[in-house]
Amino acid sequence: MTRHIAVLMGGWSAEREVSLVTGAACANALKSAGFVVTSIDVQRDMGSLLTRLYPKPDIVFNALHGRYGEDGCVQGLLDIVGIPYTHSGLLASALAMDKPMAKSLFAAAGIPVAEHVIVSSDEARAVDVMERPYVVKPLNEGSSVGVHIVRRSDNTPLFEESGWPYGERVMVEKFIDGRELTVAVMGDKPVAVTEITTGRTFYDYDAKYADGGSVHVVPAEIDSDVYNETMRLALIAHRALGCRGVSRADLRYDGENLYMLEVNTQPGMTPTSLVPEQAAHIGMSFEELVTWMIGHAEYDL
Questions:
Q1: What is the pLDDT of residue 146?
Q2: Domain 116-174 is of which CATH architecture?
Q3: SS3 assignment, position 137
C-alpha cells in the first residue's frame, strides 16, 4: 500500500536554507520511490504545523536542521501526536545538540575528546581562556554555524560589534590540528570513513555547502587500523547518545590520536552531503537511502 510521507523542511534556525535543499532532495527521491509526499515548510506557529499534519501522514521525514528541528523540540511534538519520524528521538537529539553534554557522554564511553571550557561570551571576547590555538563554538548550533578558530597570530576581534547571537555562554575548545574525518552510521553499522579537505581556514558552513568548498575522499586514504578505529568510535558515539536511524560522527586525526568532535543526528542530505556519498560508496542509491530511513522511522511511546 502506498504510504503518505510528510517532509518537514525549512524551519527558522540559522540552517534554514540548507534544510530547504535537503527537504526538496528527499521529497523528490521519496516520490520517485512511489510514496505520496507532502512537503511542509515549518514555521514557528506549532498550531499551524499540527493542522498541516492532519489527516496524519504515515511517517514524517524530518529534514530540518539546527535548533528546534534537530534538538528534540519537533521530535517531542511528533511523539505526542504519535507519528513515526526519521532520525533520532527526543533525548538523543537533545543530547547531541548540547555540545558539552555530548562530550561528557563520549568521554564516559571512552571516546577521546578535546579539552574545553565553558565561559561567557564577554569573557571569551576579553581574554584568552586557554592557550592558543583554540576554537570558539556555540553550545547548540550545527553545520559549524558561529564557529571561530583563534590562532596564535590572530589580532582581530573575535566577534562582530553586534556581539554574539548564539547565547550568553560559549564553548572554548583546544584546536586539534590534523585531518578531518567523518563516518555515517546507519542503524547499528558504520558505513565508511570520508576525509574532508578544504582550501578555507577550516570546514566551515560555506565549505560544507558551497560548490567547490571542499573535497571528499571516500574511503579515506588512511592506515587501515586508523580507519577501523574511526568506524568503531563513530558507532560507540551513536550508541552512547542513543541515536537511531542515520547519524554522522565528525572526528579529527592528529597523526597519532583520534578525537570526537560531535555527532550530527540530522546530517545533511543535499547534493554535496557526506552521508549520500558514503551510501553510494557501498552501492546504495539516494532513493534507496531515503527509503531505508523511512523503513526505520519510529516515535517514542
A1: 74
A2: 2-Layer Sandwich (3.30)
A3: strand
